[in-house]
Amino acid sequence: MSSVFIGELLALSMMAFALGMDAFSVGLGMGMVRLRKREIFHIGFVIGLFHVIMPLAGMAAGQLLSGFLGMLAVYIGGSLLFILGAQMIFAAFKQSEEPFISPAGAGLLIFAVGVSLDSFSVGLGLGMYGSKPLLAVALFGAFSTVLTWAGLLIGSKVQSWLGSYSEALGGTILIGFGLKLLLPL
Q1: Domain span holding position 34
Q2: Which positions, given as ranges, span the membrane (predicted)?
């Protein structure tokens, strides 16, 4: 292997880890809703898949609209996570056995899109710099899948310790992450 390839692999791996930490944070919040192991596997897989699809879409968009679409994607993602977090907090105090948002079906798609919109922006940048797209998206998908699973599993442990307050904590994490995207410092 050439040193150029190793350097690019290392840079893309660090970028994939950074994007995957977003998925970890959201997974931590989502894990505080009672989930089965099969659901955890499915959620991680879908979020990982979106971390492949979104950068590919960003690369395809290329230079044409990179600045505008990049910021728009970040704001949409932040808004979605903020709204989902607020709904989780509302559901925690509603004293209902059924979660307000289910991380399945349409709810899972909303979560996956919300957490992977920042990878669309990264894809725009990678498309402009001529990076190896297949290597990049494979790393993005793998890192985000594994980190989502880790967040979900840790969140489920916290859920068992905190009981009914765990969903409110999960919602707070999602709101915090949404605000981080909406109000970059």
Answers
A1: 3-182
A2: 6-28, 40-62, 68-93, 105-128, 134-155, 162-183
